[in-house]
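Cross-posting from the chemistry board since nobody answered there.

I work mostly on the small-molecule side, so proteins are not my area. We synthesized thiamine diphosphate and want a rough idea of how it might sit in this target. Sequence and SMILES are below. Is it possible to get a predicted 3D structure of the two together?
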Amino acid sequence: MAIATATQVSNPLPQADIANITGSKALLEALIAEGVETIFGYPGGAIMPIYDALYDYHDQLKHILVRHEQGGIHAAQGFARSSGKVGVVFATSGPGATNLVTGLADAMIDSTPVVAITGQVYAHLLGTDAFQETDVINITSPVTKWNYQITDAAEIPAVLAKAFYIARSGRPGPVLIDITKNAQLQLFAYSGYQKCNHIRSYRPKPIIRKEYIEEAANLINAAEKPFVIFGQGVILGNAEKEFTNFIEKGGLPAAWTILGLSALPTDHPLNMGMLGMHGNYGPNVLTNDCDVLIAVGMRFDDRVTGRLDKYAKQAKVIHLDIDPSEIDKNVKATVGVWGDCKETLPLLTQLIESKSRTAWIQRFKDHDAEENKEVIFAELHPDTPVMTMGEVIRNLNEISGGDAIIVTDVGQHQMVTCRYARFNQSNSNITSGGLGTMGFALPAAIGAKFGAPERTVVAIIGDGGVQMTLQELGTILQTEVNVKILILNNHFLGMVRQWQQLFHDKRYSFVDIASPDYVKLAEAYGIAAASIESRDQLNDALSKMYHHDRSYLLEVNVGKENNVFPMVPQGCSVSEIRLK
Amino acid sequence: MKQEYTITVYTENHIGLLVRIATIFSRRKINIESLNTSPSEAEGIHRFTIVIVETEEVVRKLARQIEKQVEVLKAYYNNNEEIIWQELALYKVPTAQIAEKVKVERLLREHGARAVVIRNDYVVFETVGHREETDRLVQVLAPYGLIEFVRSARVAIIKESRGFHEKLREFEQAEPMGELIENEFLNQQKEIFSM
Ligand SMILES: Cc1ncc(C[n+]2csc(CCOP(=O)(O)OP(=O)(O)O)c2C)c(N)n1
C-alpha cells in the first residue's frame, strides 16, 4: 500500500507506550502534532465521533463554528494566507462535503495550503447511497492536490502526516481526507505520530540546475530593457527579501499579479504596479516592449497576459517556478529556472551585474504620468457629486498607513482595491484571484484575523458578493472576532454591468441588485455599523470603523455606473490597454 | 503535427489515481485511444500505458501534468518509432462456418490467428499485433458471421529504456540525488526520450 511505503516511520514508541485510542482522538493528536491551533468547521452525523473527541480538546484546539461549510473553507484559506500556516476545516459527509468544493477549487488554483477533513458514512455502507453519502473523493479529485479516504483508524497518523506535508510543501494546495465513521470510532494501537518529510513518488521541489541560472543571468546582464513580473510564488516561498535584493541589484523594474501584491511594498521605487486586465498602463504596455521578461512565481493567467499570441513576442522570457508544469504551459520560456525562488533568486542575484537603468525605468514613470492624468487622479480625487471606490481606498490608506490586511471579494471593488491599496508588508493582500469566487471575502477575513490576531483586517466587498456569504456575520457574532467590513455599494453587480455597458450595448441584464438595510442587519448580529453617502462623512466614518475596538460594518454608497479603467478588453493584447 | 503517442506512467498503486489521470485528459477534451494498467518491472510500481493522438507539445504538457500527481513517479512519452507494442484481439466465429469453408481457416492462418477455444457452436481465435492488422482481420471475417470481437489496450516497451529499477532507488532517497536530472525536458527538448 502506498501509505506504508511513503512515510518513513522512524523510532516507533516502545511497546509499553502503545495505547488503544480511537481514530478520532488520533486525528486530533495529529493536528496538535502539526501545530494546528485553530479549526474552522461545522458538525453533522458522519463526523460526530470527531466532534465528540473535540469536546475534550477545547483547551488545545480552538474550533470556530462557521455558518456554512463554504465559509469554513474560505476562513481556513484566509487563515493560511495571513499566517503562512496550513488552514484546517472540518465538515460532515454529503452536503457538508459538497459545500467545500468551491473553496477547494479556490485553494487549488490559488495554491493555498488547506487540509479539509470530512466525515463519511460507515465503510460497509460505501456505495449503497446511504444517508448523506457522496463520493467526495471523486468529486474533489480535480480540485485537490491530493485526497484520500480512510476506512481504518490505523491509517490515520500516517495519512494525516502525509496530508500536511503535501498541503504545505512544493507548490502548496488543498488536501482532503475523508474518514469513514467506523474509522473515527475504531480503537487501535496508537504508537505515536511521526511527521512526514518524504514521499518517494512526490518531488515538491525540482532540482536547481546551475546552467539555467547562468543562462538567465547572461540574458539579464545583456538586456537593455529587462522587466520583472512576479506572483504569489514570492510570498509562498517566503522570498520577499531575496526578491527585493534581486531587483535592487539589477535595477529591475517589477510589476505584480494580484496574488503577488504585497510581496513588495507599495512605496518601493522599483514597484511599477499591477499587471493584467485592470492593471497599470506602464506594466501592460511595456510588457510588449521589454527585451527580457523575467517571471517569478507566477503562472501567466489569461487575465494577466491578455491575448497570448500577442504577448511579449519580442522578449526573451525567463521563468522561475517551483512547479515544472507551469513552465512553457502558457508562455514559452527561453530559459526555465525550475526551483523554489527562495533558493534560485539568490543564485541569480549573485550573477547579475549591479545596474540602475534609469532611462528604462523612466519609461514606466512616463506611462504612469499619463495614466495618472487620464484615470487615477479623477478616481482618487473626483469632482463628481457621488463618491468613487478609488477615493474610499485612498482615504483608507491614509488611516491604515498601509499596515492593514486587506481582504477583497470579486468584482470592481477588488480591482480598484488592488490598484490603489497601500501595503507595507507581505501576506497582507488576500483575494480570490484564480477562481474569482464571490462570497470569499467575509469568511476569508474572519480566518485571516484568526491567523494574524495582532493585525487589523479589513474586508472590502461589493453589494453582490457580501450577500453570498452574509451568514458568516453569525460567526462574528459568536466568536467576537474583530473584522472590519467595508461594503462598497454601487447597487449593481458592478463588474458584470461594466462589461454589459462596454461590450453588450448597455443591455443591463439582471445586474441590478437590491440590498437589505446593512446597518440594521449588522445590528441584528450585534455588530456596530454605519452607512454613508456623502464625501464629507467619508474620513470620519472610515476612521471610526478602523479604530473601533470590535467588528464594524461600514456601507459606503458609491457611484452606480462607474467603471474600472484601464482595461485590456478580453481577446486584446496587453498593449491595446484602454485608458477609457 | 498530430501523431500517435504512447505515454508510459510509473505510479504507486493508489485507488483514486486512475480518475486523477483520466481527468487530465477529459478536462482538456482529449480522447484516450487506449489505456492499460499493469504491474511493471519494479516491484510494487504500477505502469499505465496510455495512447493518444496529439502534437508533441500537447503531449509534453500532459506528461508534466501527470507527473504532478502525488502518486506518479515518472511519465514518459514516445512516438511509435520509439516503442515496441502489441495489442491482443479475440474473434468468436461460428464453428459451422469454419468447418464448411476451408477458405476461412486459410484466412485465419494467413493472419496469424490461433484458436484458443474450439466448441461445437463457436471457435475463439486470437491474434497479437498492431491495430491495422486486427482491423483487417475483422473485415475479412465479417462476411462469415463474426459473433463477437474485442481488442485489448496497447502494451508497449520503450526501446531505449533501461527499466525503472535504478530510477526507483533514486526516488527512494529522501534527498534527491544529483544525478536525478529532473529538468530533462529543458535539457534535451529535441530528444524526446531520456532516462
Ligand atoms: C460565485 C460567483 N458568481 C458569479 C460571479 C461573476 N461575477 C464576477 S464579478 C460579479 C459582480 C460582482 O458584483 P458586486 O459584488 O456588487 O461587486 P462590484 O463589481 O459591484 O464591485 C459577478 C456576478 C463570480 N465571480 N462568482
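Reply from a structural biologist on the board:
Welcome over. Reading the output above for you: The longest strand of chain A covers residues 114-120. The pocket of thiamine diphosphate is lined by residues A 409-413, 436-439, 462-465, 488, 490, 492-496 (CB under 6 Å). Happy to explain the C-alpha cell format if needed.
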